[in-house]
Specification:
Blueprint lengths: L11 H15 L18 E6 L14 H10 L4 E3 L5 E3 L2 E5 L5 E6 L13 H12 L15 E8 L2 E6 L21 H7 L16 E7 L3 E6 L12 E6 L3 H9 L5 E2 L16 E15 L9 H9 L3 H8 L4 E3 L6 H4 L7 H8 L9 H9 L8 E7 L3 H15 L4 E7 L1 H7 L7 E6 L10 H4 L15 H10 L5 H17 L3 E13 L3 E3 L15 E3 L2
Parallel strand pairs: 1-10, 1-11, 14-15
Antiparallel strand pairs: 2-3, 4-5, 5-7, 6-7, 8-9, 9-10, 11-17, 12-16, 12-17, 13-17, 18-19
Helix pairs in contact: 1-12, 6-10, 14-15
Length: about 550
Amino acid sequence: MGHTHRSGRINRSTFAIFIAAIAALTLTLAGCGSNTAKSSGDPNTLTVAISSAVSTLSVNQEAGSANYQLAALYQEGLTGVDGTGKVIPALATSWKSSDNKSWVFTLRKNVKLHDGSTLTADDIVYAINVARDSKKSPGLSVYWPDYVQSAEKTGDNQITITLSSPHSDFPIQVSNVAGLFVTSKKFFDSAGSNYGSSKKLIVGTGPYKVTEFDPSSHVTLTKFKDYWGKNNGPQTVRIDFVTEDSTRQLAFTSGKVDVSFNVPVTSVAQWKTNGGSTTAYSDRSYYGLTFDPNVAPFNDIHVRKAVSYAVDKKSIVSGILKGYGEVATGIDSPEQLAGWTGNDASKASKQTAKLPAISYDLKKAKSELKQSSKPNGFTATLTYPTGYAQVGKASLAIAQNLKSLGITLNVKEIPLEQWLSEIGNGKQGVGWMIYNPTTPQPNEITSWLLAAGGSGTNPANWNNAEVAAETEKVGTLDQESDKLALVLKSTTTALDEDIYSPIYWGKSVVATAKGVKLAKIGTYWLGTNWAADFSKNA
């Protein structure tokens, strides 16, 4: 999972937190959370298995994808998003700004918290300041933009947030998919270090109330009867933490769970037994190679292009991913960029299709290598993190093609922590970039990858003053078409220089048991009240 972040980009110091969010969604760690409850035949109870355990219910403390998925059911921000990524009212009914610097939010009246108290403007201001505090919110504060100057109550049902520079898309920053999870000041202070723990649980304003939490196995939620909005979901939702793929599959096929997230795309067919079905959707994830132009021999553009031409993207998508992915022609996926095309991914796709991403061509690969400083080949290492089997298989496929050029690519699986420490460390010339964005911010990924300020500013340590300035400028533009044009221009430069070699945009798969219906699903679905989209036959 990725995120929006300070100054619209992320740096190496916050990357460990950022990438852990990806891992929380997709990484499988054996031996944890295998204690699942028997699924109830009660149509009012839904049992869901996910691939990661959470140590806390507080996203402020732990900002992993699983934490966001859970919090979407019990905590809210000033704004929210719908399944298409459109920003919608939540705790604020409306917002306005005359200069895109001073934002006034009108608050929803008489909102009840799960402890029965009434939400106040002071609570929301406090929640914003807590989210920005690195000591109180170590998992969340790094994602808050540093252009936020202050948040203050300016009326009984009004707060004003002041920015240091104009940002027309600021309302998304105060959503529950970006970085604001409101509770009461009283509860936060009284819970102290136990906020979000099994001892104190958590209090929010969302459609579901947390009633039970065991970090080693599950969390249970029940419908909040005083919720301000509508909730047509089941009365009870139990979410089991089953991090090993095979254990989760067994729990699903044996009827212990009604729904399973994180179905491995390499083994979807195995989940369709006993009347089960699967649904795939674009999760906007980006998988590609990153070249550090400061590390030999990848400081030679002909070497970089030789490797890129040797990547058979179509075969990786069709063979290794079994079609559960799309060949990437750029960095930000069309579904991600759709926020700047009226939520029309097809329009964005037409734009990304024009980008100069390199396509598979072994003849061109050989030609580029002959023009390089290493015409007879060389040896390099490509690592990938444990838990990403499909990335490992793709790495081996790339290595096989490079072998025909005289290039030896040693593929090595390493622990996540080690892989994290090597990203952008200036020592490896080629590496994987895996990014799963969570927000509708169209340039969430490229706001970091194209922050071309040199060492430490982007995973390639790429230095291009013009691109760096363009990336910094995007957030200050008013017109969405201008933002899209500028990001595509910067992306074109990165692809022309072959700093990044996009391979595929990923998909996620959800399995539902016989008798369980999934009404709708979309790319931003897990940031909504997703439990309400499931129903069980009586």
